[in-house]
Amino acid sequence: MADLLMCEPTMLYNILNQEIKHSRLAETNYLYLLDVRSKREYNESHIITAQRMKKKDNDYVIPQSMDLECVKYCIVYDGKTNALDVNFEVREKDSDSEDDEVSYVMGSAVLCARILAEFTRHPVYILDGGYECFSAHYHFFRTQKIFSMPQLDSSQCHHSMAYHIFLSDCRQVQEASLQGTDISTEKKEDVSELDAFEPYPIEVVPGEVYLGTVKQACNPQMHKDLKIKAHVNVGLETTPYFQGDTCRLLQISVTDSPEEDLFSSFRHTSHFMDAHVERRSVILVFSTRGISRSCTVMLAYLMHRNRESLKRSWTPGPLPPPAYLTDDKTRPTGQRD
User: How many domains does the chain have?
Assistant: First the structure.
């Protein structure tokens, strides 16, 4: 039986925003995000890519198409469960509800996770605080749509998310035929939506510091959603934001080469970021692809902020080139263990 672990909202946010060449959400065995709330709540709004777990005789039913053994992340959420040993609270049934299932205010995610843990070798995560907590922090990741898997081929269309889309499409086609409407254009947009999904910057310090790419640094919607107020640009490219404002833009003009001197900029960068954090001004640190120069500067800042060594600050994620990861010479000036 796999372990049950709590998943912080920041962890799920970062899982949703991983990319290589394309968003990793399009990979069939990357993430199963399961919503165990009522059908009414799910239809009103859910987290992007989430599938609703159904019940039969008040027991959760795992779709045969769901390959739990191979999935990397399996995350379950309900309304607001925030602990593994939560006290189960049964929700009173609405008089006008057509749903006969027993619904829990808290604890249903744990019940479902225990069942899923029997079929997977990886940990099953329960979203800490559930939908209520996640949507409060990341309201822009709420949706009523069911995302498709555009990179699946025909031999893989039995996978659960594609199957879910198929059933949803059938229902909408039936409703549209009764209403005499044409949904072909709408569905073309829906089918391509996940493939066109643009990952947001990675959240390094919740609500304070983000790590991203030049493309993300030029995106006005991401700036608005994350409330970004300052940039640390570790590269030669420019963006439309904060030009000429040295209080909100720190430009470190270096190329992506191991021969470049990033060490001399660590102290100034850390103090610049400290000043904005103290003012509750959200910062985006970025370079061309967000995987070398900006990541190195971010590691230096975390060492400075947490008073930790490189080894303790370096957690799995986008990594700098090996040449940048030489011993503790990369420790910012004045840093002590």
Answer: 3
User: Per the domain annotation, does 336 fall within a domain?
Assistant: no
Distance CA 75, CA 325 (A): 33
Residues 214 and 241 in one domain: yes
Listed ranges 78-92, 172-186, 289-303, 317-331; the one with the highest mean pLDDT: 289-303
pLDDT of residue 309: 81
The tokens for 70 are 């191979």
Strand extents, DSSP E, 235-306: 249-252, 282-287
Q: Average pLDDT of 308-334?
A: 54
Closest CA to 260 of 320, 213, 215: 320
Is residue 269 assigned to a domain? yes
Helix 160-179 with 184-191: angle, nearest 10 deg: 160
Return the top range by mean pLDDT from 30-44, 106-120, 148-162, 194-208: 30-44
- What's the pLDDT tens digit per position in 251-276? 999 999 888 999 999 999 999 999 99
The reported pLDDT for the residue numbered 85 is 81
Separation CA 2–CA 282 (nearest Å): 37
Per the CB < 8 A criterion, the answer to whether 318 and 297 are in contact is no
Structure tokens at 271: 């103090």
State the CATH number of the domain containing residue 66. 3.40.250.10
Q: Are strands 4-7 and 124-127 parallel, antiparallel or unpaired?
A: parallel
Same-domain check for residues 72 and 109: yes
Residue 164 C-alpha from the chain's centroid? 21
Q: Give the domain range for residue 213.
A: 202-330
H/E run at residue 106: strand 104-106
Residue 322: pLDDT over 50? no
Angle at 291 between CA 324 and CA 311, to 5 degrees: 50
Residue 187 vs residue 247, higher pLDDT? 247
